[in-house]
Structure formats: structure tokens, C-alpha cells
Amino acid sequence: MAKSVISSGDMAHKIFPQVTEPPRVRGAWQRLLMRWRHRPSQEAGVRPLVSRGQFCLLLLLTLIGIFEVGVIVASTGGLPNVYINLYYPLLAVASFSSPLPVSVALALLAGMVPSHQGFLNAHLLGEEPASILRPLSFIAMSSSISLMSSALRHELRQITALAKRLTEEVAAKEKAQRALKDSQDQLRLLLDHVQDMVLLIDRTGQIQEVNPAVEQLMGYSRQELLKRHISTVLEPAVWREIVNHEGRNGPEGAKVGPMDVQIVAAEGRRHIIEVTAVPAHQQGQIQSWIITAHDVTPQRQAEEMRTKTWLRLLATQEEERKRVGYDFHDGPMQLIASALSLMQSYMHRSGRKSPLLERAFNLLSQALEEARDIITHLIPKELAEKEFPKAIASLLAEVEKRHNIGTELEVGEGRWEMSPLVGAHLFRIVQEAINNAVKHSQTPRIKVRLWQDEEKMWVSVQDWGIGLVESPQNGTLGLKCMRDRAKILKGEMEIISSPGMGAEVRFNIPLAALTQNQELSSLSPEVSP
Fold it and tell me: What is the reported pLDDT for 434?
């Protein structure tokens, strides 16, 4: 089989599609200019006004400059004054680097100096009224330069601030890109070397990406797996569970699993894998699912072997209980019953009352009664008759009679038929829970409830004693045996208890396990009583 080279970076990009590459630094000033031309709408109304004002100022400056130069040339025959030649460049520099009020003040002051025949030569106005035009034009031109320089300075500040922000954004995006690349490299290394299977599927169930572990376990190449539906690779139950889970939890979703599913590899090999599906969100919606799985075939085979071994042990135990019960019934109990019959016949024929004989007779009668109770514990006849609730009722009646403890049995609706071995397991769990309550809880009352829902059968044993604390003195071994029996029947058990408030032992098993007689019986040894 030809192996393909998976690009885990592609998988990372598919998992995180919202990550985009930052712009390159090259051409930053071009983008700066474009961004300045496409500033937000609140600046759009100001920009044309500034441009029109600049144009008007430039036009006015040109006209005034022509007039000023003409006046100077006509009056002096040239430009002899060095100060006049340098004034405008110096004023432009001063205006560009100074606030607007300072620039205007400089322009007004320059219009009054004598070298420019300004307002200080007011005595000339009487002789030459037209001479006022020169200082006025000088002031107007100087003020225009000041306003123009101030507008350009403001524009440059905005461009500088925008360039700074752009530089910071570019640096931040470059940093994010480097962090993303590092994360992708780490993810690529992880996906390439992790032993767990990783599959990326979209919301329709199509496989978008897989890691090398999937190819190695399933025996298919990456190209063969891509675009296939997940139900053709894993059991259809996995996809149904994902769809149902999303329907129950809405767009937020939550992880699905872990669950055991069986897959068939390319060579026909069967594997049991533990699958977990986690949703990948984008903008609050589930866009894809990331499925992780690992091969648990050896563990499940070991657990199955352990379960079968334990079942054989329990089956042997039940058969041994039957053997002991039958032997006890046919042996000691028959002898005790015969002795009682002989003593009763002798006492009746002799007509004499002997305290010793009466005491012996009472002790033998008590022994016979206790022997019957032992046999009832070993071989509940109700279980043989497939009447589980009646077996529990008999057990409670015996507890009430022997220990003077109030009992109550509550049986819900349902069908209680079950295989003998399953019934024996359930009976032993209830029996152990009742024995723990009698021995350790100091309870005045015990209640047993039996009920069923659509999928499970439930059993509850509740007392109102001092509470149950798991310790060697309180039968931890017995509790472990109870849990093991429930687990064998694919059920669960929990203990609800608090000091001084009593305890409740509650367990459940699937309804399908009640009738698995063939599977359990096949594990039972062939032992005849």
C-alpha cells in the first residue's frame, strides 16, 4: 500500500480557517497612501474641503506673489534687499514648525517693518496713497503662507499617526503569523507522531483530513479516505450519535463519547476503538467535528476474558450452592427431621414429661428451622420458578421475622422474567445489600423498590440507619462483589449515604441483559446436583 504524506498544517488550517496571513511590509507606503485615500466616512467630508482650501490658497499665493514681485521690481529696479529675498522661505519654515497664531503674528509684524515700506511709513500715504497696496499684499501673502503651512503640518501629523498605526498593525500581524507558524509546526509534529487516530469531518460527515495513525490502523491511504463519509469508515452509529447529540445540544454542542465501536481494516482485521468527537466552532456555529480514537482491542479482549472468567466462577459458585443445598436437605435435615419424629413418638407413648427431652426437642426444632432458612438462602425456590419479586419478598419476610426489622417491597410495572443465572446475580446483590443493612446500619426499617424504564431495570435497597461507610468492618469485600456482579450484567451501581441519614444502594442493568440466558449458561460448568 502506498503511503501518502499528510500535511498536518493543512489540517490545522482547516481546523482554524479564521486565521489569515498578515500583509507584507513591502509596499507599506503604497498601502498607507491607499488607506489615507480610503479613510472612514467621518473624514470623507473634511478631506474635499481641505483640498479646495489648499487650492484656493495656492492660487491666491501665486497672484499675490506675482503682484509683490512686480511692485518690488518697479519701485527698486530689482531685488536688492537680501532680507526680502530670504523672508518668504524663512516664513514658510517658521510657519511649518510653529503654531498657526504664531505664524500669522509673524506675517503681520513683517508687514509693518520699514524695509518693506510698511505701515510705519504712514506719512507717505498722504503723498502716495497707492503705496498702501504693498504692505497689504505683503501681509496677505505672508498670511497665506502661514495658513498653507499649518494645513500641511496638520496633514503630515495625520499621515504620520496613520503610518505609526499601520506599522504597529503590521508588526502585530507578523508576530501573530510567527506564533501561528510555531503552533502549526507543533500541531504538525503532534499529529504526525501521536498514536491516536485523528479525523476532521465537516457537518455533513465528509472526511476532510486524517493523520498517519488512521492510515496505519485502517490500512487505507489518505487519498482513499478523503471525501468519504464517516459512516463508511466507522460504524454508522457514530455519525447518528453525533447528529443526535448536536440536535439535543444546539449550535453550542459538546463532545460526544467516548464510545466503543468496531472497525474493519483493509485486510479484514477487526479492531475495537474508543471514539470521542469534539465540535469545532466558528462564529458560534459548529463548522466541523474533530474525531479522536485509539485502539482498545487488547484492553477489551482482556476485560472480556476477565468477565467470562468471573462468570464461570459465579456460575460454579451457584452450582456449588445448589449442591450444598441439596446435600444439606437430603442429609442433615432428613436426620434432624427423623430424630424429631422419634422423640415426639417416644414422648407421646411414654406419657411422661422430661424437661431434658423437651429442651432437646426444642433445640432440634430450632435447628431444623434454621436449616430450612439456610437452604432458602442457598436455593431460593422462587428463582427456580422465575419469580424474582417473590424471591425478594420471601427474603424480606425472613428478615422481618428473624431480626424484628420492618420491611417494605415496592414493585413497579414491568415484566420480570429473567434467566436463572441472571436472577441469581440480582438476588445475591439484593441479599448482600440487605445483610449489610441488618448487620451494620442499626436501621428500624428496610425498603426495596423494583421498577423499569424503557431501557433499564432498577433496584433500590434503602435503610434509615446510621449511614454506610465503606470499610473492612462494613463489608467492603461484599460491596465489591456487588459491583462486580452488576458490571458483569453490564449494569451500574451507586451508594447514596450520609452519616445519620441512612443509606441507599441503587443499581440498574439493561433490560436486554435479563434474558441473556444462552450466553451466561454457556459459561456455566456442567455440574449436576
Answer: 92
